[in-house]
Design a protein that fits this description.
With 291 residues, the protein is of the alpha+beta class. The chain contains ten helices and eleven strands. The strands form two sheets. A nine-stranded mixed beta sheet has the order 9-10-6-5-4-3-2-1-11. Strands 7-8 form a two-stranded antiparallel sheet.
C-alpha cells in the first residue's frame, strides 16, 4: 500500500487546524535539518550534541560528549513520543568551556538535554531511563544511587524530577521507600567498618587487592566517627583521588549490612519524567560545530 504524503497525513490528523499543525511540522523539520546541515552535530549552552539515524534499527541516537561518554539517548520509531536515556554519566569534560562542577554540572547537563529535546524533537513527551548512573573517580565507577540514597535519602534521578515507574515491578517503590527510611537513621560503627575492610584486604587472590593497604585503611577510617549518621559523614567528607576505591568499598559495606536493598540497582529500576509541559526558561545558545 502506497504511503500517504506527509502533508495529507497532517491534514487528516489536524481536525480542522491544518495550518497550525503544518507550521509545527515545518518548524520541526527545519530544526532537525539544522543538525543534518551541521554534519549531525550542534552545540547548545556549551554542550556538544551529536545525532544520527540508525536505518537498521529505525531509531535516532543522540549523544553528548566528543567521545559519546556523557549522555546517550534513543528515540525509537515504535515509540515516537518517548526518549530512552541509555546512559547519563558524570565526566568532567562533558562541557566544552569548563569542567562539570560536582553537584551542579549534571543538573546543567540534564537541563540542557531537555532543552535540546524540546527544541529539536518537540513531539517527545516522556523521558525514561534505567538507574545505572555512576560517577568516575580515578577510574573507579561509584554508584550514584548508593551515594545519593545514603547522603540525601533519595535517588540520583529524583533530583531531576524523575519518579520510579512501578509498571513492571510493583514492589520496587516499597523497597525504595524502605531505603529512604533506613538511610535517615544509619550510624557509623567504626570498628565494624575497619573489620570489613580488613576482610577485603585479606582476600589474597583478589584482582583488585593492589589498591588496598593497611595504611590506606587507617587513613580512610581516621575520618570516621562512631555513632555519627552516615549521611552526616558523607556531607562533610571530601573524596580524595587516593580514596576512590576504598570509598566504593565503604558504600558497599553500608548497603550490605545496614538494612538497605541493592536489588533496585540490580533490577535496573526504571525512572520516568513527563516533559510535555516543561518550559524553556531562557533562549538557547546554539552554534554549529564540526570536528
Amino acid at each position: 500500500m502506497k504511503q500517504l504524503h506527509p502533508y495529507l497525513q497532517i491534514y487528516l490528523k489536524s481536525k480542522g487546524k491544518f495550518k497550525k499543525v503544518l507550521t509545527h511540522y515545518m518548524n520541526t523539520k527545519k530544526k532537525q535539518n539544522e543538525i543534518q546541515n551541521a554534519g549531525g552535530t550542534v552545540e547548545i549552552d556549551n554542550f556538544i550534541f551529536e545525532e544520527f539515524y540508525d536505518e537498521e534499527d529505525e531509531r535516532i541516537n543522540i549523544f553528548i560528549g566528543k567521545k559519546h561518554q556523557c549522555v546517550y539517548g534513543i528515540i525509537d520509531k515504535a515509540t515516537p513520543d518517548l526518549v530512552w536515556l541509555e546512559w547519563f554519566n558524570y565526566h568532567q569534560n562533558c562541557n566544552l568551556t569548563q569542567d562539570l562542577v560536582k553537584g551542579e554540572g549534571t543538573v546543567n547537563m540534564m537541563t540542557t538535554f531537555i532543552k535540546y529535546i524540546k527544541e529539536y524533537h518537540p513531539d517527545i513527551k516522556i523521558i525514561k531511563l534505567s538507574d545505572k548512573a555512576e560517577f568516575i573517580c580515578s577510574n573507579v565507577s561509584i554508584s550514584l544511587y548508593k551515594l545519593y540514597m545514603l547522603k540525601y535519602s533519595k535517588s540520583f534521578y529524583e533530583k531531576f524530577g524523575f519518579s520510579l515507574d512501578n509498571t513492571n515491578n510493583p514492589d520496587i517503590i516499597i523497597k525504595h521507600n524502605k531505603n529512604i527510611e533506613n538511610s535517615k537513621k544509619n550510624k557509623i560503627d567504626k570498628e565494624f567498618i575497619i573489620k570489613e575492610l580488613k576482610k577485603i584486604l585479606e582476600i589474597k587472590d583478589s584482582l583488585f587487592k593492589f589498591y588496598l593497604t593497611q595504611e590506606l585503611i587507617d587513613d580512610f577510617t581516621s575520618y570516621l566517627k562512631n555513632d555519627e549518621l552516615v549521611r552526616e559523614f558523607l556531607i562533610r567528607f571530601k573524596i580524595l583521588d587516593t580514596h576512590c576505591a576504598i570509598f566504593e568499598d565503604f558504600l558497599n559495606i553500608i548497603f550490605g549490612n545496614y538494612n538497605l536493598d541493592t536489588s533496585i540497582i540490580s533490577l535496573g529500576a526504571i525512572y520516568v519524567k513527563n516533559i510535555e509541559k516543561h518550559k524553556l526558561t531562557r533562549k538557547l545558545t546554539k552554534k554549529k560545530i564540526s570536528f
